Amino acid sequence: MSTLVTPVPPAERQGAERGAGAGPGRERGLAWLAAPALVVFVAFGAIPLVGVLLLSFTTWDTLGTISVTGLESWRAVLSDPGLPHALWVTFLVMALSWLVQTPMSVLLGVFLAGHQRYRAVLAVFYFVPLLLSSAAIAVTYKALLDPNFGLGAGLGIELLAQDWLGEPHLALGVVIFVVSWQFIPFHTLIYQGGVRQIPRSMYEAAELDGAGRIRTFFSITLPQLKYTIITSSTLMVAGSLTFFDLIFVLTAGGPGDATRVLALDMYKRGFQANLMGHASAIAVILVLVGLALALLLRRIGGGSSSASQLDGA
Amino acid sequence: MEPRTTTRRAFLSLSLGLPLGAALAACGSAGPGTAAGGGGPKATYWYLSQQPAEGVRRRAVERFNKANPNGQIAETTFQNDAYKTKIKTAIGAGQAPTIIFGWGGGTLRSYVQAGQVDDLTPWFEQNPQVKDRLFPSAFGAATIEGKIYALPIERVQPIVLFYNKKVFDQVGVQPPQTWGDIMDLVPKFNAKGIAPFSLGGQSRWTNMMWLEFLFDRIGGPEVFQAVFDGEKDAWSHPAAIDALGKVQELVKADGFIKGFSSITADSNADQALLYTGKAAMMLHGSWSYGIQATEGGDFVSSGGLGYLNFPPVDGGKGDPGNTVGNPAQYLSISSKATAQEKEIAKKFFATGLSTDQEIDDWIATGSVPIVKGIESKLAASKDAEWLKFVYDIASNAKTFGQSWDQALSPTAAEVLLDNIAKLFQLSISPEQFATNMNAVIGQ
């Protein structure tokens, strides 16, 4: 659920810098407003991060004393063939779930941006998966996909009675499907808001120029959604790095290690194998990968959000 | 502009204050209350919540608290997997309960090495009557380097080969007497569309039970003992390679239910496969009997459930009377507890556990308590035949091997379970398994 708590900086909102009365004096007067957020961030973000970094240079089994062992944990983690595998699985989940979620969310978002009543009703239904916890979703899908007592076996439909969570490729596919099913509503909501912010005048102008629906979609809607796509993609990518609960309940990383993503690998090493040093090293890698991806996405987006997309509107 | 600022501030304090407050409140209540509550000092005790065992444990604590109003026990229950994680974290954080429940072996050893549990050897010497009435075999997993760190409690849990008699009658075959019989039965059941064996493979320790028996039957208990003693390349023993290969042969012959690697034992789906007749046999802990009896309708009461000790392997060196599983459950005393709390815990150990009432309770759930001289009580039970079977296995076994994941350190156990899952997935060969496991010997 980390995607839900990742704050979207207000500066991302278009036109925020054009707000009235944003003089330097006024900013100083309001700086204390950031204090509560800063305290929470330092207490629950920065300090644990430093703690994890320090722990990665130690050996600790959670029971005895913490002993400093330099780079030993790092050497063990980096030389373990499990790490590149977990990285690859994490990347696959990230890339494939982005590929599935983005087109569907954009299309659904555009569709739901219309003000027709039936679309408002559908929007309510589309929203439902977002109200369920990941663990509940995983338990439900696990029961539905059970090869012996699940939907396929119950209805006698051969096609549905696959060994969904027991074959490595199928299990990965199921994970991506369930993740998408859970999070498409959230991203649809973002796109719906994005589409509604596009000035009507642009569509009217396009209509006068004789552009059809598809042409309007590709020439106006998509380019106007550029920053929405970047925001949504950042949330998807950063969120998929930390998928844990859903996969843990659904497959526990199995079969074998087919769905063992980095976050799951970290948990298993830390809390099941009692190797806190190793787990902390993986946590640091996770943070670095996440930061690198977020920076990369901002780069792709042109780096600065000050470039107005409303030129000529 | 002023009203707008106020609104924003109100919004901020709401949105930030709430989660912060909730988080702090959670911090405050997360630790177990070791402080004395109302009504004198209390020792804390955490145990597992699965029924019917939970009720037996609760009644034991209730009886003790009634008899000892000045030194009570405060109980907290946890689910099995949640407990295993929680207890490690709590001990590491200095928040352990007074009484630490566990399975002995490697985990207990890690507590001992960290100085987290008290040596109970002197206490057992002062209270010989406590030790003398329990199965001697139960003390093995409680003993680390000659000293006893835990009191064996509750019941003995050997792993047993269960089978569905109705399915065997329907197919017209006999229960297996040797490993060869097992391999012969596999195609016969598959031909009728019945899975030969049920298996909750996602839980991994379920697969491990197969290896525990095959290692023992082929090479004897010495093969795993060598691993336990940290001998170099112990997993490459020819008997070990043979056993690992035999399991893969069974997987390749479709010996296990379709989709076994996504079935969890915690959901009891593997048990359901046996009592619904979708699978013919299942290797599982003796606690399975109680689950089948409560969840399987009249399956057990109508005589549908058959059971036998794991059959011998032709040419194998191991004694077919040997068994593996949990010789007992164990209670230790936290070294961080106060003297008062420790006194209450010791009183509970001496007078509150394995009492006559608790023994009756365990027998009623279809379990054999770890207490000597209870044959007449077992014979009087409605499950007399089953209880005698378990009692005979436990008392006649020359070796009662402890479950591997409990015997080894948590670090080695995790690597073991991981490689077992891959072995059953056929993604590594027996030789690769041995190489991977040799790398963590002695850890």
From TrEMBL, chain A:
Membrane topology qualifier: Multi-pass membrane protein
Q: Which region ranges are annotated with the description Disordered? A: 1-23
Q: What is this protein called?
A: Raffinose/stachyose/melibiose transport system permease protein
| Any Pfam family matching the protein | BPD_transp_1
* A single Gene Ontology CC term: plasma membrane
**In its keyword annotation, does this UniProt entry include Membrane?**
yes
PANTHER family associated with the record: ABC TRANSPORTER PERMEASE PROTEIN, INNER MEMBRANE ABC TRANSPORTER PERMEASE PROTEIN YCJO
Q: What are the residue boundaries of the ABC transmembrane type-1 domain, all occurrences included? A: 87-297
Question: Cross-referenced CDD domains, in alphabetical order?
Answer: TM_PBP2
Q: Which UniProt keywords apply?
A: Cell membrane, Membrane, Transmembrane, Transmembrane helix, Transport
What InterPro entries does the record tag this protein with? ABC_transporter_permease, MetI-like, MetI-like_sf
| Transmembrane parts of this sequence | 30-55, 86-113, 120-141, 170-191, 235-255, 275-297
Q: What species was this sequence derived from?
A: Thermocatellispora tengchongensis
Give GO terms for biological process: transmembrane transport
Q: What is its main location?
A: membrane
| Compartments in which it is found | Cell membrane
Is the keyword Transcription regulation assigned to this protein?
no
Similarity comment: Belongs to the binding-protein-dependent transport system permease family.
UniProtKB/TrEMBL annotation, chain B:
Q: Which residues are the signal sequence here?
A: 1-25
Q: Which UniProt keywords apply?
A: Signal
Coiled coil segments of this chain: none
PROSITE patterns, sorted: PROKAR_LIPOPROTEIN, TAT
Q: Taxonomically, which superkingdom?
A: Bacteria
Q: What is this protein called?
A: Raffinose/stachyose/melibiose transport system substrate-binding protein
